[in-house]
Amino acid sequence: MKAKTFLFTLCSFFYLISNAQTIPVSIYLDARHSPYQHVITYAGEELTDDDGDREFETILDLSPGMFEYAYWVDNSLGNDPDNPRRRNGAAFSLIHVSDPMITYLLPQDGGVMRERRIRADLAYTAANPPLAGSMSLIINGITVVNPEDYFDATKRRLLISDPPSLVDGENTVTFSYETSAGQISRSSTFTYHPILLTRQNRTYRMENILVWGRVMETPYPSTVFLQCGSDTYETSVNMEGYFGQEVRIASGSNVVKVAYGSDGFANPTDEITLIADLRHDWWVELTGSLDATTATINTVVHGIDAGDLTFAWSESAENPEVLGISGSGSSVSFQQAVSEGEYLLELHATAEDGTSYTARKIFLQGSDPHFLDLYERAPWMEDMVLYETENDYYTWGCYSFAKMKEVLPHMKKLGMNALMLPPLNDGGYVTEDHFQLNLAYGTR
Question: What is the C-alpha to C-alpha distance for residues 250 and 51, in angstroms, rounded to an integer?
């Protein structure tokens, strides 16, 4: 009898698990100010923009518990920018699925209001809808009257434009609603400014950059004023409140302020700090020429007077033989080598301000001695058996050259003699900074 009771209980338990009700959860990606064309989740679910509002959306039927996801956005993997909950050390966002729940409350906690609106996305089963009159929206301690008026039951979304009771600075919004299963509540504390400056978390490399922002309150002024260092700019505001201005920055920290008038910078409406490590705009090109026995490399300097540069010539220690390349002149000549192969030659140029540039030239010795052309394949590439790799293929989430090195003997046994590494710079395939390594690889 006990065995039958245990078996019945066990069967009932498995029946409940297999028939556990899923919750329809809407996730989305706001692309109104981005050029994105294709968005799918890491698991392959496609987000679509059926109504043409540039917000890609999909509804997932999820079981209660923790759900993690990421987006492939035009083939670049990233997290959900409107969901502040992340899995540590990975590009995955987290949702704690329950019935009922609040998937999004925007602006997100700890963020900045970039649109003058408040949005809450709800998730619940058909058998557990919000109770009539149970919704509550509180902004800075002040209750919004009849929040249901802003709720779209089809989209299960509350959206209130031009919300009342906002203050310049820190704001707190709390939204809650109740179902037959209980009440769910969520709060968000964010920053709001009547004029918002937008910045990217990056190091700027150019002296002149575009700073843009948005006026959040109507009626919009025709112009606003920006200040960076000793420079002041007046810039036009368009019909949607947006403005953009090219400003001049210097290496180090640059404080950019915005105000309604040119006399308002003592108490600016908003300010941001931009970090710059400016790259010099000069460079050196190398050209090569041959006569019967001698090869010559000349420098062609761009963007700076050649007299302001010092030169240092060198050659690779791995060259087939020593050519005797050295000196500090603007050109170098050498006797053509006897040993066949590739010869790497290098020029290091330094300006008076300490900035530098390295230029390289390859000389090929063989039946047809010549300098390697820019669009010419190097001879070693003719016998190349290439294996393209991502460093974290071998240890998920660990971008380690040491881990990749462990598989090199195996690759060699398979006949590979060359590896193609992924882009090592910041942003990877969607490069954000050509002069900065991805921090997972190092700093220089």
Answer: 44
Alpha-carbon distance 249 to 295, whole Å? 44
82-110 per-position pLDDT tens digit: 998 887 656 789 999 999 999 999 999 99
DSSP 70-107: -EEETTEEE--TT---B-TTSS-EEEEE-SSEEEEEES
* Average confidence score pLDDT of the chain: 88
The domains of the chain are located at 21-192, 197-276, 283-377, 386-437
In which residue are the tokens 């790799």 written?
Answer: 389
Look-up of token digits 């002024």: 221
Render pLDDT for 340-372 as a digit per residue (tens, 0 to 9): 999 999 999 999 999 999 999 999 999 999 999
Q: Are strands 386-388 and 370-371 parallel, antiparallel or unpaired?
A: unpaired
In this structure, whether the domain defined by 21-192 belongs to CATH 2.60.40.1220 is answered with yes
**Matching CATH topology for 21-192 and 197-276?**
yes
CATH code of the domain made up of 283-377: 2.60.40.10
Residue 73 to residue 43: CA distance in whole angstroms: 13
Q: Any idea which fold 197-276 has? A: Immunoglobulin-like (2.60.40)
What is the C-alpha separation between 395 and 392, in angstroms, rounded?
5
User: Distance between CA atoms of 439 and 441, rounded to whole angstroms?
Assistant: 5
> Could you write out the DSSP letters of every residue in 388-443?
E--GGGSSTT---HHHHHTTHHHHHHTT--EEEPPP-EETTTS-SEEEEE-TTT--
